[in-house]
Write a structure and sequence with these properties.
The complex is a heterotrimer of chains A (about 240), B (about 290) and C (about 350). Chain A is α/β, with parallel strands linked by helices. Chain A contains 10 helices and 10 strands. A 6-stranded mixed sheet of chain A has the order 6-7-8-3-9-10, sandwiched between helices. Chain A has a 4-stranded antiparallel sheet with strand order 2-1-4-5, covered by helices on one side. Chain C has a single domain, classed as ABC transporter involved in vitamin B12 uptake, BtuC (Orthogonal Bundle). Chain C starts with a helix and ends in a 9-residue tail after the last helix. Classes of the chains: A alpha/beta (about 240), B mainly alpha (about 290), C mainly alpha (about 350). Chains in contact: A-B, B-C.
């Protein structure tokens, strides 16, 4: 059993003096997909922010075995962790092209970057059309695609996405999740997806973690989570 | 008519100085939402540094570039040591620190170089390259240097990866960190750049207003007026504002109130902008805060 | 609060008051004059502290209102023959109006814009004062001379003593007024606007009106100080009111303690005596020692913000709190939570303790 790409043990996090996570454990397998489920305010976004070092955190966090609990956000990013934050995190005053170039900021291989630009425009043709447009003028779905494309240009080992379906039409969401699946299968990029849309996330994921008020309520293979009665009633609606 | 053109032309030359200082102010404002009240004194100190080099026998352009580089380093160091600790403190704290910095630079210059007024050489001698009859050689040279500096800064921010990263860090520090940009270093580089172009402004101004520790007080005020007029968050606006204040100040000084009260023209411009168009001519709409 | 705290404070205040009253009768002429200067600065600093410490607004231009008070008084006295005890109040009211009108556009957009506008005011004022067009009133760059003060009703006081007592009376009255302002409803509103402007507005506090009025009042204080200063020196000229004066006021309230009314005495002593010290050093070290006050001010501004944001008064309060605690614990009384003074000093700006 290879070591997980990301392993968190006893993860705690604070917003100022208020503790929001009370000791969370979970893993993302190398090349796997883990879904983080839970209601609004349960602490899902907080987990990603803690992993990226955007808020005060404590606990044992390891990326490919290496402890990252004390690293700065930009250093974690440089290790190959692409965090697509809630709200997309687009640079709204810059053009689509400039947003993408920022994704490639830490890379030194110009050829590889050029190839990836082509690939990304192939996957998201609408971005190619709007290349020189100001990113803030894009629709919600396009901005989400831009955020994912930017993350892809980092050539990450692990992509962490915060509510990628938020505020998007079902067709667009389906498209995005299809692309995420491709990225995972074809490029071997591990995924950690925080989602309110449990059904969608469980379809894609091989493992899932259910968070309630800052603690893990349930965790295991996504099949098992999907089959669980309580989860079915509370989060899947049947 | 000739007099009018002369005032216009020299207004442009001084306006170039104001434009560069205004640009430095805007660069720091965009990245930190703070106005560096010490920008003028830092520029003055850099100019003395250049003067010392020239005085000890170095050729002008060597001293010029050495000063620019030294100012860049100085600006970055100041940001890391003195400014960064107050990044999350109330605005009042930073303003107090900036005033403290300006007092220190002013006294340091007075202590090291004395308070008597000195002349500062210009590399532009003989006939002016353009506008002859209305401008001195130095003035036309200064306008040229101004445009070079502005063009270089524009190209840097628009077309280089580092410039893009700095723009990103100023607009959205969180997202910038998430793509691996070291935002802290971007801030330091921003301060360094502002200090560097400030030093150029000082070296262009000194042959006109003469070198003494208090030479930049008035110039800083004009730069503020220009930056506010153009829009404190818009670099193009700030540059336009700087030139506008230079020309307006000269014309109003020559034809309306007399050159000895040109500073009140700057004050009047600032108040007028705050009353009628607080976001400046080209800035983003300012929301009146409570 | 424990008795020891309050008793200590009352004792200190009493001692200070007795000393201040007796001072002009045992000190030499020049020292009395310096004492008057300290009181004058203290009044200006009271005004600025109300604005900056309690209401959180930055002014880099209070030297200009000091100048308006000084020149207003001088013009009324020299050109219109108004006696000083009428000229100073009138000039102060002019300052209030000027401050209110100036504050109106400048306050709307937050601290930085106000800082810019007041900086512009400070830099432009000397030029305006020496403008040839106003020569008839202001005496241009030569300035105006005033008759020296004389004690009224034939009291057996010389000019310096009378000046000092006048300043002491004004200072005490204005301090008392400021203290009541700060402790009352208005003071709470000002502090609320400083700390949580949106919440204050939501609670019905008309922030714009309070802020503008506060600015006017602080200008009034600076005007009184300016008027007293004109009368004290017997002379006004544009050179006395340049940018370094506004900076000195800022240094005064930072060193004395933002939001500490009692601390203005420390600040005033500081800005009165540091330049004197530097002047004395020029004798030994030559012209370059002229740079010393600026350097000291600059370094102190930064150091105080780093280490002691509550200034000298905050440090004194913390020390007094520590002493009070020792007294209490020695008497075996229950130890109270942290000591009010120390915990107040812990928060930047303090809760606005009036002493």
């Amino acid at each position: 059993m290879t070591q997980p790409i990301l392993a968190a043990k006893g993860l705690e996090a604070w917003y100022g003096p208020a503790r929001a996570l009370h000791g969370v454990d979970f893993e993302v397998e190398e090349g796997g997909v883990t879904a983080v489920l839970g209601a609004n305010g349960a602490g899902k976004t907080t987990i990603l922010r803690a992993l990226s070092g955007l808020i005060r955190r404590a606990g044992d966090i390891r990326f490919r075995g290496r402890s990252i609990g004390a690293l700065a956000t930009e250093d974690i990013a440089r290790l190959g962790v692409a965090h697509v934050p809630d709200g997309r995190g687009t640079f709204i005053d810059l053009t689509v092209e400039e947003n993408l170039r920022l994704g490639a900021h830490i890379r030194a291989d110009k050829q590889g970057v050029r190839r990836d630009f082509d690939r990304v425009f192939g996957v998201f043709p609408r971005l190619a059309e709007r290349r020189r447009q100001q990113a803030g003028t894009l629709s919600g779905g396009e901005q989400q695609m831009l955020a994912i494309a930017r993350a892809l240009l980092m050539r990450p080992n692990l992509m962490m996405l915060d509510e990628p379906s938020f505020g998007l039409a079902p067709l667009v969401v389906a498209e995005i999740f299809r692309i995420l699946g491709e990225i995972n299968r074809d490029e071997g990029v591990s995924l950690l997806i925080v989602e309110q849309n449990a059904s969608l996330a469980l379809d894609l994921a091989d493992r899932a973690v259910l968070i309630e008020t800052g603690m893990v309520a349930l965790s295991g293979p996504s099949q098992a989570i999907r089959a669980d009665d309580a989860v079915r009633r509370a989060y899947l609606g049947y | 008519m000739a007099e009018f053109l002369h005032q216009l032309a020299s207004g442009l030359a001084l306006g170039g100085v104001y434009a560069i200082m205004a640009l430095a102010l805007v660069m720091i404002y965009q990245a930190t939402h703070l106005i560096n009240f010490a920008q003028g004194e830092m520029a003055m100190f850099s100019t003395y540094f250049a003067w010392k080099l020239i005085d000890s026998g170095q050729p002008y352009w060597l001293a010029f570039f050495a000063t620019v580089v030294a100012s860049f380093i100085g600006g970055a160091v100041i940001e890391r040591l003195v400014v960064r600790p107050f990044a999350n403190a109330p605005v009042l704290a930073s303003v107090i620190v900036f005033i403290g910095l300006s007092l220190i630079f002013n006294s340091l210059a007075g202590w090291l170089y004395g308070y008597s007024v000195t002349s500062f050489d210009t590399p532009f001698t003989g006939r002016p390259w353009f506008g002859s009859g209305y401008m001195s050689a130095h003035e036309s040279g200064a306008v040229l240097v101004t445009f070079c500096v502005l063009a270089l800064v524009y190209v840097f921010f628009r077309f280089t990866p580092l410039g893009l990263a700095m723009r990103a860090a100023a607009q959205n520090p969180v997202s910038s960190r998430l793509v691996g940009i070291r935002v802290g270093w971007m801030l330091a580089i921003g301060w360094g750049l502002a200090a560097a172009i400030g030093s150029i402004a000082g070296m262009m101004a000194a042959p006109i207003v003469y070198l003494d520790p208090n030479m930049m007080g008035g110039i800083l005020l004009y730069a503020f007026a220009g930056a506010l007029l153009g829009g404190i968050d818009n670099p193009f606006g700030a540059v336009f504002g700087g030139f506008a204040v230079g020309v307006l100040g000269n014309l109003i000084g020559a034809y309306v109130v007399g050159a000895e009260v040109k500073l009140s023209v700057a004050l009047a411009i600032i108040i007028a902008v705050l009353v009628w168009r607080p976001s400046g001519l080209f800035g983003r709409r300012l929301v009146a805060r409570v | 609060m424990a008795d020891a705290d309050g008793a200590l404070r009352a004792l200190a205040a009493l001692a200070l008051g007795v000393f201040a009253l007796a001072f002009p009768f045992f000190a030499s002429g020049y020292h009395i004059y310096q004492g008057a200067q300290v009181l004058i600065y203290a009044v200006a600093l009271l005004g600025l502290n109300l604005l900056t410490g309690f209401n959180g607004q930055i002014s880099l231009g209070h030297g200009a209102f000091f100048a308006i008070g000084g020149y207003g008084t001088a013009i009324l006295m020299a050109k219109l023959g108004v006696p000083y005890w009428a000229a100073i109040p009138v000039a102060s009211v002019v300052c209030f109006v000027a401050g209110f009108l100036f504050g109106f556009p400048a306050l709307r957009f937050g601290g930085l814009y106000l800082a810019l506008a007041t900086f512009a005011l400070a830099v432009a004022t000397p030029q305006i004062l020496s403008y040839k067009g106003f020569d008839a009133f202001t005496g241009g760059s030569q300035g105006l001379s005033l008759v020296k003060l004389r004690a009224p009703f034939g009291l057996k006081l010389n000019a310096d003593q009378w000046l000092y007592l006048l300043c002491l009376a004004c200072g005490a009255a204005l301090y008392w007024a400021a203290r009541n302002l700060v402790r009352g409803r208005i003071g709470r509103a000002l502090i609320a606007i400083r700390d949580q402007p949106i919440a204050a507005e939501a609670m019905g506090v008309d922030a714009a009106l309070y802020k503008t009025t506060c600015f006017g009042v602080s200008a009034l204080y600076a005007g009184v100080a300016g008027g007293l200063s004109a009368v004290a020196v017997g002379f006004v000229s544009p050179e006395s009111f340049e940018l370094p004066l506004s900076f000195a006021f800022l240094v005064g309230i930072v060193v004395g303690g933002l939001a500490s009314l009692g601390g203005v005495i420390f600040g005033a002593l500081f800005i009165e005596f540091v330049p004197n010290l530097a002047d004395q050093l020029t004798v030994n070290f030559g012209e370059s020692a002229k740079a010393l006050p600026g350097a000291i001010y600059g370094v102190l501004l930064i150091l105080v913000m780093f280490l002691m944001p509550t200034g000298a008064a905050g440090a004194a309060r913390a020390a007094a709190g520590a002493v009070a605690r020792r007294l209490r614990s020695r008497r075996g009384a229950k130890i109270q939570d942290g000591g009010s003074a120390a915990s107040a000093a812990a928060k930047y700006g303090g809760k606005g303790e009036a002493t």
